[in-house]
Amino acid sequence: xxxxxxxxxxxxxxxxxxxxxxVAAAILHKNGxxxxxxxKQKFPRFVIGESLLPRSMYNFDKAGxxxxxxxxxxxxxYGAKFADKYEVCDFDFSSQFSDGWTxxxxxxxxxxxxxxxxxxxxxxxxxDYESEVTAVRFNEDGSSxxxxxxxxxxxxxxxxxxxxxxxxxxxxxxxxxxxxxxxLPERSSFFCHVKPxxxxxxxxxxxxxxxxxTCDIWGWVIPFADGTSSIGIVGSPDGVHRxxxxxxxxxxKWIAEIPALQERFTDCEMVFEPRTITxxxxxxxxxxxxxxxxxxxxxxxxxxxxxxxVTLATESGALAAELVTDQLDGKAVDWEKDYSEYIISGxxxxxxxxxxxxxxxxxxxxxxxxPNEKIKQQICSVLAGYVWDNxxxxxxxxxxxxxxxxxxxxx
Length: 411
Ligand SMILES: Cc1cc2nc3c(=O)[nH]c(=O)nc-3n(C[C@H](O)[C@H](O)[C@H](O)COP(=O)(O)OP(=O)(O)OC[C@H]3O[C@@H](n4cnc5c(N)ncnc54)[C@H](O)[C@@H]3O)c2cc1C
Description:
Elements: E1 4-15, H1 19-30, E2 35-38, H2 56-62, H3 66-71, E3 75-77, E4 79-83, E5 88-92, E6 104-106, H4 109-122, E7 126-128, E8 132-138, E9 144-150, E10 153-164, H5 171-175, E11 179-180, E12 188-195, H6 202-205, E13 207-214, E14 217-223, E15 229-235, H7 237-240, H8 247-257, H9 259-265, E16 269-270, E17 275-278, E18 283-284, E19 288-289, E20 292-294, H10 309-328, H11 335-359, H12 361-366, H13 373-383, H14 393-396, H15 398-410
Parallel strand pairs: 1-2, 1-10, 2-7, 4-13, 10-20
Antiparallel strand pairs: 3-6, 4-5, 8-9, 9-10, 11-18, 12-15, 12-16, 12-17, 13-14, 14-15, 19-20
Helix pairs in contact: 1-4, 1-10, 2-10, 8-9, 10-11, 11-15
The chain binds flavin-adenine dinucleotide.
């Protein structure tokens, strides 16, 4: 055997150093556990998911990250604009129904995730980059041995609990056969970062823009603090990839095609070659098991339209960390009710909104002639990520509330 093999013992092994993993690890460490994070890639690394939601601020706060993020000077986000060819519907997070944070950030994730990862290292959490989980064996009591490879070195990590925050890697869903096909139709995304010729004004930078192209194709503009922006096109794979040519040529055709992109980004510089992610929606059979819990994208992903990914990733990371704490402290934990049902209830609200978006109902509501202010505030709260606020009828009875409203505005 050429490989060097070592044994290591920790209380909790966290797989993946995205926001879900670092939030979970920071809370577990604060609660007194010996935590280790293993991360497959070298940081900084690119990942998509740049527009955050105010609700995620609670979880960054619980992890003690707010000051660190604030110091990094990321672009502040105060709302979201939805625009079609003729109209703009502006959601200002300060006019929302739910109590709580009314702003957040727009972030380049390579730098953002790296800052959080370095912060947890500073606090004394062991984080190994370029270390890939390749196998896991669970014992009857839920403890486990995880095989982690780094170059020609293999470590066997003995853990009392595993938090799988491996994002699109979906380590435990793959190894334990937990993946389920998504019930949503396959969609594709095509995106890049651009540097416009004219600097975006400070005021315009404070909101993301969602552009309606057709019912099933839309675009995003996420401005960053350094004057560059993220732009993307999302929808049916055939629709998104309708243009021929190099990736840059295809993106320039999209910029020329959509007036809101044309006026901002004609002759822009492309910071990197446009990229594609297709078939990103995913689900799992269960969110937890004996000795492990799935968090963030490892437990599933719905759709980018409402920027819900990092909010769900940090909400599940923070909650999992508190429940693992209770479990390792010998308290009884009802994982089904306190974790699965809670997380799924929030995901379901987003799913209803995603389906209403692609059916065209939400566009009708957003661009209706006389929006009712109270209803707008309630919808604004969902768009700010407050999908667990059952005082909000668009959370408590999300399905019925949205379809009834769509009928009213269409009549
Ligand atoms: C087109 C598109 C646009 C999106 N836009 C937004 C948006 O605007 N806002 C938003 O909030 N979300 C958005 N998302 C979703 C967002 O990308 C994710 O929800 C978010 O990054 C999930 O965070 P995470 O911490 O769960 O996983 P990640 O950030 O993916 O981190 C997981 C980490 O695990 C590591 N890993 C994987 N496998 C292994 C292994 N075997 N061993 C060790 N480590 C491993 C990876 O290297 C990675 O660093 C978008 C998604 C798509 C597809």
